[in-house]
Amino acid sequence: MHATIADVIADTAQNSIEAGASRVEVALVEDGVTVSVRIADNGKGMDEATQRRAFNPFYTEPGKHDKRKVGLGLPILKQLCEATDGGLSLESAPGRGTTLSYHFRADHVDLPPMGDIAAMVLMLFNYPGEFELVFTHRKGGEEYEIARSELADAVGGLESVEGLTLAKEFLASQESALS
User: Fold this and answer.
1) Predicted confidence band at 72 (pLDDT cuts at 50, 70, 90)?
2) What whole-number distance in Å separates Cα of residue 109 and Cα of residue 123?
């Protein structure tokens, strides 16, 4: 299992990036009743047979992992959703991308802690490759949205320690404003 909700989001969003998406949208919504996540991409997508296999812990996309023959991300996510009275859905089509939506009951005793959302977003923004990632976090009546390119431009790039530090401070301030 993942230690935090931030770990779950990072794991599932990383799949979109690895699927060759040029655009990934990640939305986290906390409404007091549920914690909901929606990840939509324009990556290569999956056919129906692959979608069914995606929840099998003994399946992983051929060529995705050099030394591993299992894919535990979605099976573990499904287990977590079931354990917290939540649910999930996967919609995908070859060449059109994938949308993964999942939610958990916010007050469930088995719900992992939220974790460091700002650090998770920064980690996803720094994933190698040419893609745009847009992250939205809504909590109660407050919300912020930030795009990878927008943040990189604002801090002078995400390649330097100074840029990363400024980006982390900005993301942390946005998270604090939601509390």
Assistant:
1) low
2) 28
